[in-house]
Design goal:
Molybdopterin biosynthesis moea protein, domain 2, Hypothetical protein af1432, 4 strands
Length: 412
């Protein structure tokens, strides 16, 4: 018997052990020959290795070599991106290795400096943080985007323990565009269901009321923020980063066997929403933060704290609270830079880790130009093993390509 990486599998090999997904569902029983469709399904579900009949020499063909000069150039660029992290931490080392492999294999469209707005560095001087910024934000008469009525109706259905799948479907079906988006997700590699789903009521039955509503919530909210001046943020890159964080959060939650993985998807999707609000209503302040980060070589998050006395997580928490969204979502999304301070540190830690991993992989950008540091306490709270990263990265690549259509959606 030999263990074979998925990218080295060949049609006709015979399984020596059952193959299951990260939730323990059987994908293919042992003793079955592997076909091309099986390999595709394994990739979709992020299976990294399988055990097959035969000796190691027969089962482990060599992969495609990577040009050493190109690999070294990628490594140097990545080391600069990791400059704020503790490279001696074993988890950071594993994330670095996975990011290097992913970039060398062109697994994701990596972000470079040309893809980000270039802030003008601030004058080299010492300035005091605006301790009153958060209060100024609260007192300013800001017209926040109205959350779609359909989301409020879904929350009412969820809150009623006697509600049915048909009642949930009736709410979703009021929006043809949202219905089409949800069905497209349900029939994608995001779920990998064996049969096609053509009704929202069936989708609710198969996936769950809370899970489907969490997806609808995230889609609806992100569609509200489409017009951001390019001098502040590249909105396409921002949406890519947010979508990838949502996917990684969901996968990490599945590795921990959490029940409501789609709620973690939404937390990841909305984790940087506070930065969008700052860009819209306080453009000069965010430009000052960007200039400060560029001058000092620090993270944009740290620059927000230094210049504003608060950060985008605080603004996001206020916004989600005003919308009366679930408290768990509010806390998990807004505490991703300070997960140990969240009511549920383990859940917030997943968003923290996802943000770090997506920044390392270079999928889109929220305005940060470096990988944020890992909070060791948050890693302990997460209960994760670094062995999951290889599987998560591979599965993220497949699911991201499947869900890219969400980046061009309009408000339901």
């Amino acid at each position: 018997m030999g263990s074979v990486r998925i990218k080295e599998l060949k049609a006709g090999m015979v399984l020596a052990d059952d193959v299951t997904d990260i939730k323990g569902r059987l994908l293919l029983p042992k003793g079955r020959p592997i076909g091309p469709d099986h390999i595709r399904i394994f990739k979709i579900w992020g299976v990294a290795r399988v055990n097959v009949m035969g000796g190691p020499k027969e089962c482990e063909p060599a992969g495609q070599p990577i040009d050493p000069a190109r690999l070294e150039a990628i490594r140097r660029a990545l080391e600069n991106r990791f400059r704020l992290t503790d490279r001696n931490h074993p988890v950071v080392q594993e994330i670095f290795a996975q990011a290097l492999q992913a970039r060398a294999s062109d697994l994701f469209p990596a972000v470079n400096a040309a893809g980000l707005p270039e802030p003008a560095p601030e004058a080299d001087g010492v300035s005091q943080p605006r301790e009153d910024f958060f209060q100024k934000f609260i007192e300013k008469e800001i017209l926040l985007p109205e959350i779609p009525t359909i989301v409020m109706e879904m929350n009412e259905v969820i809150a009623n323990p006697l509600s049915t799948a048909d009642q949930m479907a009736q709410v979703v079906n009021k929006s043809p565009s949202l219905t089409a988006q949800l069905l497209r997700i349900v029939n994608s590699a995001f779920y990998g269901l064996p049969t096609r789903v053509d009704r929202v009521s069936l989708a609710v039955t198969l996936i769950g009321t809370r899970e489907l509503s969490a997806l609808a919530l995230g889609i609806s909210i992100m569609s509200l923020f489409k017009i951001i001046p390019s001098r502040l943020l590249n909105m396409q890159l921002f949406l890519q980063h947010s979508l990838a964080c949502g996917i990684v959060c969901r996968l990490l939650a599945a590795h921990k066997a959490m029940r409501h993985t789609e709620q973690m998807f939404t937390a990841g999707l909305l984790h940087d929403i506070g930065r969008l609000v700052i860009c819209i209503h306080f453009p000069e302040e965010i430009l000052e933060c960007m200039g400060h980060a560029a001058l000092k070589g620090t993270s944009l998050f740290a620059a927000e704290m230094e210049k504003l006395g608060c950060h985008h997580g605080h603004i996001g928490k206020y916004l989600l609270h005003q919308w009366r969204l679930p408290l768990s979502l509010e806390n998990n999304a807004s505490c991703h830079h300070e997960p140990t301070e969240a009511p549920d540190p383990a859940a917030a830690a997943l968003v923290h880790v996802a943000d770090l991993l997506v920044n390392a992989l270079g999928i889109g950008s929220s305005g940060e130009r470096c990988v944020p540091p890992l909070d060791p306490r948050a890693w302990e709270d997460s209960g994760l093993s670094s062995e999951c990263f290889e599987t998560v990265v591979q599965q993220t690549a497949h699911q991201f390509k499947t869900l890219e259509f969400l980046l061009q959606t309009k408000a339901p």
